[in-house]
UniProtKB/TrEMBL annotation:
Its EC number is 1.1.1.138. It is an enzyme of class 1 (oxidoreductase). Keywords: NADP, Oxidoreductase. GO terms for biological process: mannitol metabolic process. InterPro entries: NAD(P)-bd_dom_sf, Sc_DH/Rdtase_CS, SDR_fam. GO terms for molecular function: mannitol 2-dehydrogenase (NADP+) activity. The lineage of its organism: Eukaryota, Fungi, Dikarya, Ascomycota, Pezizomycotina. This is NADP-dependent mannitol dehydrogenase. Belongs to the short-chain dehydrogenases/reductases (SDR) family. It comes from the Eukaryota.
Length: 351
């Protein structure tokens, strides 16, 4: 649908900009012209492969609903390692089912936290292509660059808001055009509000969270599901819900978040039933309290002690504690599993 215009820069950087035209010769930045109107909404894409950075812009036909996401705290940084081909020579049939060799994965909310760590796991398990989608440009760009540098995998970053259905379908189409496939979606984009009593919950805040966590899940699943159905090869979709979709957290009031994650679980089951006929498996991961930037804020210190006390394993989950489950759900190791809500919570929901 979009032809790419490639710009060679003095710094050896390559900038490719998509435009609604069939082909165009390479030009310098100084003389570059495009048919993209200044007022047209654009989704920036940054791509890393073999040490080369590529920037491009894909145009979307409608206004994007992008909005800032406050980034509290920081994550413990972990690096990814490349999967060496020699592994394949010695692997047993059981372990080979867990490999994601040559698969292409989209990870929303992959700029940091659980999404970024699962993106790392996808590369370590053999994926050849990773598309990170996030609203935070700096985080997404850094994540894509480092992941590609560490593993040699072709990683793209799209600054896109999961609430924007047209932008989502356009970017997912671009992923399929670029890699020629789409096998896995990990839908990790999400926000949390807590310590807001239901009787005081501002209406616009409630709607915003539902829009990101629930509507965003639907729009992302739909855009990827359409491509997986079209390919005829099926795929695996993993929605990151929360144990808050199954229990009410204590002591903080967070009715909206809890309701949103219950919706994600039920949506996952519904669409799993619908799309089984296409070979698309859809499962949810429901984490307990995780030690991510979302929770690494001083205001939550006192509550965190209560969370740990109420968790049988007496700790928060590490930022990479979902990785192995994500690989399992993405891989043929779980080929008979769909519509499942996998609680991974240190036992919190047992009490
Ligand atoms: N951290 C926990 O304790 C915990 C527990 C249960 C479930 N979860 C869920 O796991 C997922 C990831 O959590 P995390 O701790 O890594 O959070 P995080 O805030 O560290 O990461 C979430 C990412 O999603 C992105 N994002 C937010 N809104 C977006 C939007 N509208 N469009 C695109 N990207 C958007 C953010 O920019 C961020 O990079 C969330 O869905 C969260 O609800 C987290």
């Amino acid at each position: 649908m979009f032809a790419r215009t490639t710009l060679r820069l003095a710094s050896r950087r390559t900038v490719a900009i998509s435009r609604p035209s069939t082909s165009i010769a390479p030009v310098t930045r100084a003389t570059f012209t495009t048919s993209i109107k200044r007022s047209d909404p654009e989704v920036p894409v940054v791509s890393y492969e073999g040490g080369n950075r590529t920037e491009e812009t894909i145009r979307v036909p409608a206004a994007t609903a992008a909005g800032p996401v406050t980034p509290p705290g920081t994550d413990e940084e972990k690096r990814a390692f490349p999967l060496k081909p020699s592994v394949y020579e010695h692997i047993t049939p059981t372990l080979s089912k867990f490999l994601l060799t040559n698969k292409v994965a989209i990870i929303t909310g992959g700029g940091r936290g659980l999404g970024l760590n699962m993106a790392q796991a996808m590369t370590e398990a053999g994926c050849r292509g990773i598309a990170i989608m996030d609203v935070q440009q700096d985080l997404g760009d850094k994540a894509a660059r480092e992941l590609s540098e560490q593993t040699g995998v072709d990683v793209r970053f799209y600054r896109v808001d999961v609430r924007d259905g047209q932008a989502m379908s356009q970017t997912v189409q671009d992923v399929v055009d670029h890699y020629g496939a789409l096998d896995i979606l990990i839908n990790a984009a999400g926000i949390a509000d807590s310590n807001i009593k239901a009787e005081e919950y501002p209406h616009d805040k409630f709607r915003r969270l539902i829009d990101i966590n629930v509507t965003g899940t639907f729009l992302t699943n739909q855009a990827c599901g359409i491509q997986m159905i079209r390919s005829g090869k099926g795929g695996s979709i993993i929605n990151i819900a929360s144990m808050s979709g199954s229990v009410v957290n204590y002591p903080q009031e967070q009715s909206c978040y809890n309701a949103s994650k219950a919706a994600v679980v039920q949506f996952t089951k519904s669409v799993a039933a619908e799309w089984a006929r296409y070979g698309i498996r859809v499962n949810a991961i429901s984490p307990g309290y995780m030690d991510t930037a979302l929770n690494r804020v001083p205001a939550l210190d006192a509550q965190k002690r209560i969370w740990v006390d109420h968790t049988p394993l007496k700790k928060l989950g590490a930022v990479d504690d979902l990785n192995s489950l994500a690989v399992y759900l993405a891989s043929d190791g779980s080929s008979f599993m769909t519509g499942n809500n996998c609680l991974i919570d240190g036992g919190y929901t047992l009490w």
